[in-house]
Design brief:
The structure holds two protein chains of two kinds.
Chain A (H helix, E strand, L loop, with lengths): L2 H4 L4 E7 L2 H13 L5 E4 L5 H8 L6 H26 L13 H28 L20 E8 L4 H10 L4 E4 L11
Antiparallel strand pairs in A: 1-3, 1-4, 2-3
Chain B lengths: L12 H9 L7 H27 L14 H12 L1 H12 L5 H19 L1 H7 L24 H33 L3 H10 L7 H34 L11 H28 L7 H31 L3 H12 L3 H13 L7 H4 L2 H28 L14 H24 L5 H5 L14
The chains are: A alpha+beta, B mainly alpha.
């Protein structure tokens, strides 16, 4: 598949960096020149990269955790209380039918359980997992080893030269365009 | 306070990848022997369970009033072992303790497998294992729901939540490392790890949300880890049985669980480190800190043991004082003193820094702690039941060969999964270890 078909709105450009400081300079220069729409590849979650890309904006996953916790505590209360009310003729332990102290344990466990499951769902949704179908330019095995990368999946063709020059000038050890951005593992 | 012994670090990101991955899918003789021994123990335990299913619980040595035997003792033991992993991975993450990095993956795996082992015991203890689904709420025509006011039901929810949570936390932590293994493999292995790694490629979007989620997982785990063994302790403390009915049990159980879990981490990780030559990743810095955790919790336990006796004596309750006096002097005194020596006396050798950093002493003391913590649960469960309120019912319980066989099988079951883990998944968290390595820089940025 040619890059023109795969990316009708623009062209792929990828710069591979061997050094973190060069990558950060590349990100800063791109932002300063008003060029957006790029992704960064990194072997580890360096806070400098995340700060440069998100400027302190927190992940939306936190709302999933909150929703899970609220769902859990509500379900914990409803399951314990409604089942007890349904069976009110038999009252083991002699406590009130809806007895909050013993039910608090179940409500607490349900809060944690649903909080964790919802957080997992949020992680899957916002990370775009499973990422088996990510664009090939983002699937570079050198990144899980020791390299960093800046990837444009749909760069504006009129910016192509400017971006490639900027990546080279900030220390990218390899700059590729179009289908050349798809890296093949040597001898695989 | 972090240890005086400095952490070693791998030389580069690439070196960390290669050092950890090189042991995967390459079984050594030592590994094969351990794996086969574990598998044999599982087979023997399975045979004993088969006999129990055929002949019924009468084949165990249960005899009124001792209707909780070593299945419950071993259940509590394995839940306790499962505590250290989440403590190390979550609570130490929240307090930004650097020494967790080398040991947390194997500790988490230990947690998951220990809870998997613990979960077997309520089923074994049931006798009629096919009715295990009665534990869980499900709609039925009889309108027959379980009693949510019972601590046993709290325990079902606590342990199943803890298992689900630990498994999710363990797997989420593994994903970036599975991607590393995928990118260093070929053929079918690459496809398999590609599937397991969920297509992780280290994009900024993935890392940003991953770090956000990981923090929340850790924040949820912290209260969970403290609650689980508290809930287990309520299985006992909520009953009006002398020796059990005490408010000190939750903190006492949590301290004991952390104590036994950290000791088990030492038992498992010391041989692993030496066998795989991973001294750059797990070394005396980590073991020294684990030993200090054990010392702290050993002190807490010793205090709790003392407080139990003081309260028994000071309350002037004849049943309470009677059981505590009998534990130390009666027919189960051997179990009591084994517990005291292993949990309160032997760990004291670790107050000497040289003995805390000697691998042989570390290993031997950690084994004694594991033995002592099993006897602690034996002491709590068996002695209180065997010496109940009515002297006419007093008895002496000693486990039957079937019970010992099933207990041996549980150790085999745990060993089976742990050895399998060592060969198939990165036992040290590669992506996090890389965070301790100075990043490759050309000069414009100071490495942080």
């Amino acid at each position: 598949v040619s890059s023109a078909i795969a990316n009708p709105a623009g062209i792929r450009i990828k710069g591979i960096y061997a050094h973190l400081d060069c990558l950060l300079t590349g990100i800063e220069r791109l932002k300063r020149e008003g060029i957006t729409g790029f992704q960064v590849l990194s072997p580890i979650p360096r806070h400098e990269i995340l700060d440069a890309m998100y400027e302190g904006r927190p992940s939306p996953v936190r709302w999933w955790t909150l929703a899970g916790g609220v769902t859990g505590i509500t379900l914990g209360f409803l399951v314990t209380s409604l089942t007890s009310i349904q069976w009110e003729m038999i009252n083991p332990g002699g406590k009130p039918n809806v007895a909050l102290p013993p039910y608090a344990v179940i409500m607490f466990e349900a809060t944690i359980l649903f909080g964790a499951v919802f957080t997992l769902l949020g992680l899957i949704v916002h990370c775009g997992l499973p990422g088996w179908w990510l664009d090939g330019a983002l699937q570079d095995p050198r990144v899980t080893d020791d390299k960093f990368g800046i990837v444009f999946l749909r760069a504006n063709t009129k910016d192509e030269k400017r971006i490639m020059d900027l990546l080279r000038n900030t220390g990218a050890v390899e700059v590729t365009r179009g289908d050349d951005t798809l890296y093949e593992v040597p001898n695989a | 306070v972090e240890g005086t012994i400095e952490a070693n670090r791998p030389s580069s990101y690439g070196a960390a990848n290669r050092d950890i991955i090189r042991v995967l899918l390459r079984p050594t003789w030592g590994w094969t022997v351990l794996f086969l021994i574990s598998a044999l123990c599982v087979a023997w335990g399975g045979y004993c369970w088969y006999n129990q299913l055929i002949w019924g619980l009468g084949i165990a040595a249960y005899n009124p009033p001792v209707m909780w035997g070593i299945y419950i003792v071993t259940f509590v033991f394995w839940v306790g072992i499962g505590h250290a992993g989440t403590l190390i991975s979550a609570i130490l993450f929240l307090v930004r303790s650097r020494w967790r990095t080398g040991v947390y993956r194997a500790s988490e795996a230990m947690t998951v497998f220990a809870v998997m082992t613990a979960l077997l015991f309520p089923v074994l203890h049931l006798g009629r294992a096919w009715q295990v689904y009665w534990f869980f709420p499900y709609p039925n025509q009889r309108y027959l729901w379980m009693n949510f006011k019972s601590p046993l039901m709290w325990d079902v929810f606590a342990i199943s939540t803890y298992f689900t949570f630990s498994a999710v936390f363990f797997f989420v932590g593994l994903v970036p490392d599975l991607a590393i293994v995928r990118d260093h493999s070929t053929g079918l292995v690459k496809k398999l790890y590609g599937l397991l790694s969920f297509g992780w490629h280290g994009t900024n979007k993935q890392w940003h949300n991953y770090m956000g989620a990981y923090g929340f997982f850790a924040a949820l785990a912290a209260p969970l880890v403290l609650s689980v063994h508290s809930v287990v302790s309520w299985d006992f403390a909520m009953a009006v049985t002398a020796g059990w009915h005490s408010t000190i049990l939750p903190p006492y159980f949590v301290a004991g669980a952390i104590f036994s879990g950290c000791a088990m981490v030492i038992t498992l990780l010391l041989p692993m480190t030496y066998a795989y030559g991973w001294k750059d990743y797990v070394n005396m810095w980590h073991f020294d800190n684990l030993a200090k955790m054990c010392l702290l919790t050993s002190g807490l336990l010793t205090y709790a043991y003392g407080v139990e006796y003081f309260v028994g004596w000071y309350s002037q309750n004849p049943f309470e004082w009677g059981i505590f006096y009998w534990r130390a002097t009666g027919e189960y005194a051997w179990a009591f003193w084994t517990m005291v020596i292993c949990n309160c006396v032997i760990p004291l050798v670790w107050y000497h820094p040289a003995w805390r950093t000697n691998p042989y002493i570390l290993f031997v003391v950690s084994i004694f702690i594991n033995i002592g913590m099993w006897f602690e649960r034996f002491n709590i469960v068996i002695s209180s039941l065997a010496h109940n309120f009515d002297p006419a019912t007093w008895t002496y319980y000693m486990p039957s060969p079937t019970e010992w066989g099933i207990m041996l099988g549980s150790f085999g079951w745990f060993g089976f999964w742990f050895t399998l883990f060592l060969q198939t998944l990165p036992a040290v968290a590669i992506a996090e270890i890389k965070e301790m390595v100075a990043p490759p820089v050309k000069g414009a940025l100071e490495a942080k």
